[in-house]
Amino acid sequence: MKKIIVSIIAFSLLAVSCSDFIEKEQRGTQTLENYFQTAQECENYANELTQRLLLAKDWWTLTAPRVTNEMSTDDAWMGNTGQDSGAHRPCSQYIITPDNMGDMNSIYTAHYYTIQSANIGLERMVQSPITDAQKNQYMGESLFVRAYCYYELVNLFGGVPLYTKSLGTGDLTLQRSSAAEVYAQIETDLKDAAAKLESAPVNRDGRINKWAAYALLARVSLFQEKWAEAKTYSNKVITEGPFQLEADFLNIWNVNNHNGVESILEAQSSSIQNRDLGAALPTLSGARGEDKKNFPSNDAADVLDGWGWCMPTSDLENAYLSENDVIRRRSTITKWGEAAYGDEVLNPTHKFSLNDNKSGRICRKYYIPIATRRSLDKKDGHLPLNIPLIRLAEMYLTRAEANYHLGGDALADINIIRARVKLDPKTGISGPTLLRQIYKERRLELAFEGLRLFDIRREKDPTTGRPVIESLMGPNGTFVKYNLSSTDPYETTNLREPQDKGINFDPSKHLLWPIPQVEIDLSGNVIKQNPGY
Predict the structure, then answer these.
(1) Sign (positive/negative) of CA torsion 176, 179, 180, 185?
(2) Who contacts 472 (Cβ-Cβ below 8 Å, separation ≥6)?
(3) Which of the four pLDDT bands, split at 50, 70 and 90, describes residue 24?
């Protein structure tokens, strides 16, 4: 291995001082050799790794590409029709090429930066003169971070370069490992993380713990169709973990309910208006073109003007309507002129610029209530909304899907999820009908929580045996045909985002995104491109 992949090695070339990664004052000349000497230093390093994974300080690093993935599904339009969409268009409209990746470049680069950093930390912490319990805590968290990076990379790009040791300038040209090899490493890291975190206290301050490791194991097992393992790990979280479903679905995304009883892992934020502490998502996907005259107070303090990206589709709304699913619909989608659910008094007719909004809808899960807006000194895109990444409801749905394939009771779990939102239980369904209902419940429950693209790529249509996305997208896709014949009064009157969303989907290549061409070039063509690109 001889050549450098810049996105992987960038940190190791700069990390001699740790100053870029560990945000603390240097003490004389600080090097990797003398940094990891105290529990506080190891904790700071693990904390920074976690933040870099879950809520990067710059919105475009991870938040934007994760939102772009939502826009590539039947749940969301790009939405903002008043600004340049170049970062989101390649994926959303399936015109992506290795040289035109939009913001998908940044997540690839950022995750390898974090993987290299995790490897450095793991190598140094094991030698640190701290207690074994402290080592287990911080190394367990670091292992989870590395696993999560690879989980996203393998689902976005397929098999990717895999390494678990810090790399220097003289020992690189990494070929791509297979997706199976990457998944195997993810599982190894998560099992190791869970074991190391076994005795760590499970508290509510948002730290990574063993339950996050088991929950992600359940997810990656499901994604690999390892049904028995998916059932084992999801059942373990459900039956042994300290979590319970929120009684009120809307409360999951409540700015005053950080790390609630259902939350297994969420990206942390704070009401302290510091760029390092707040969430950019409510601004990135907030309503664009709010005006104080549209609020009862007529007060500019109530306005939080968002950028308007990632707007819900009427197709998603129709999925809720088909189940008479009022609670999850209103908790997920606010239509122009409707009251913001849970904020009806202060925002009884949420209005925004229809000229700049494709669908006349916004995502309620990302909404900042008026009372919170009034308390903010700044509205700069760094806001006090935690972002749930893994929660208990997903474990019920994972167990349901695993049980379907194992011949267990899948209906019981989806009915638990339905009961929470006051829907009647499903009875007397089986076979393909039951599997489609499980898929639908995942869509309705987890919309805009980062799973839809991965789900429709890996779910199999019970009629064709092909990935579900193939029946939705492309010239003959049901989602494309719906939009082309739609009479929705908002979507069809703002055509600055084309109505034929998804028509360019090609199943021979679009089950994965391409590897960025710059990475292939920098590897001396050792990294090979995904088929079709």
Answers:
(1) positive
(2) 74, 456, 478, 479, 480, 502
(3) very low
Q: Is the dihedral of CA 67, 72, 73, 79 positive or negative?
A: positive
CA angle 365, 306, 350 (to 5 degrees): 65
Alpha-carbon Rg of the chain, whole angstroms? 23
Per residue in 468-526, pLDDT (tens digit) is 999 999 999 999 999 999 999 999 999 999 999 999 999 999 999 999 999 999 888 99
Burial of 367-377, coded b for 16+ CB within 10 Å and e otherwise, reads bbbbebbeebe
224: which DSSP letter?
T
The torsion angle over the Cα atoms of residues 176, 267, 35 and 40, rounded to 10 degrees, is: -150
Instruction: Quickly list DSSP for 46-109.
Output: HHHHHHHHHS-SSTTTTHHHHHHHHHTSTTEE--B-SS--TTTHHHHTT--BTTB-TTHHHHHH
**Which amino acid is present at 492?**
T
Q: Please tell me what DSSP assigns to residue 265.
A: E
Q: How far is CA 62 from CA 68, 103, 255, 342, 453, in A?
A: 10, 9, 21, 29, 16
| 411 and 397 Cβ atoms separated by less than 8 Å | no
Strand-pair category, 76-77 with 311-312: antiparallel
Structural element, H or E, at residue 334: strand 333-335
Per-residue pLDDT tens digits for 36-68: 899 999 999 999 999 888 876 678 889 999 999
Residue 320 makes CB contacts below 8 A (sequence gap 6+) with: 326, 328, 329, 332, 333, 444
Distance CA 201, CA 82 (A): 48
372 CA to centre of own chain: 24
CB 255 within 8 A of CB 372: yes
Beta bridge partners of 85: none
